[in-house]
Fold this sequence. Notes:
The protein is of the alpha/beta class. It is built from 13 helices and 5 strands.
Amino acid sequence: MANIIKQGFQEKLIELGVEELLTTKSISIYAMKCRKYGQVLSSIREVGLIEAPVVAPLKKGKGYLLLDGHLRIMALKELGVERVSCLISTDDETYTYNKYINRLSAIQEHRMIMKAIQSGVSEEKLARALNLDISTIRNKKCLLEGICPEAIELLKDKSVPEPVFRVLKKMKAPRQINAAMLMNDQNKFTSSYAKALLDATPANQLVNKGRPKKETPAILARQARLEEESLALSREIGSLKEQYGTAMIDMTSMQAYLKSLLGNETVAKYLRELHGPVHDKFKEIAELDFFRLKNMA
């Protein structure tokens, strides 16, 4: 019999008091001065709350745990809003809402802006809603002009800085695709890396050739060797990424099992009293923060 997929959220929203939501993380007072908070505040003030905060009912006692939407709740409090419609999660995990997993890419942001403009929202209103200068909105609107569809598809969900797209526009379509593949393979999306790829691009693959480069046989041979080494390195990195992904899934599953094991007081007591070192090691693994370790690496 096929496994039944568990629904992640209840179908209906619930209206809750802003003050009665229990936060899962502390937000510094300095967060209210950051650009992101300013955008959230301006957006809610201009067009209202778009994305409902996510909550989960407490397993013991009454109340709701705020899983996602801490900045939105802070903004609502500042604006004097007392009640908010929330999405109810059937689980109290916070992995789904982790900023390293769920973030808006430059291309997704461009598409969001284009969709809003096509729906009749003016550039001025968008600028106010996102707390951005109107010139920034126009730059984001023109972000993909001159980028081929294949390169866009390769980079659509990647965290690519806007200057990288300006560099890609100087290349012809086949080279854009090749550059996007190299950036993907090496998971490197910096403007300096894009410029390095541009410098290594033959003149006949540039949109504006400009002053012809001196391409002696030695230079051409070196470029060919670098391309070959880069492709070999990309294949090796791809293999390592695949192994890393599998290992992370195994570790996450193992950690969840150990948490449930140590959550059973009878088992935990048995391990503490008769197998102390094993209990300590299990506890250490159960408390590991894989995302923090990844950032430190």
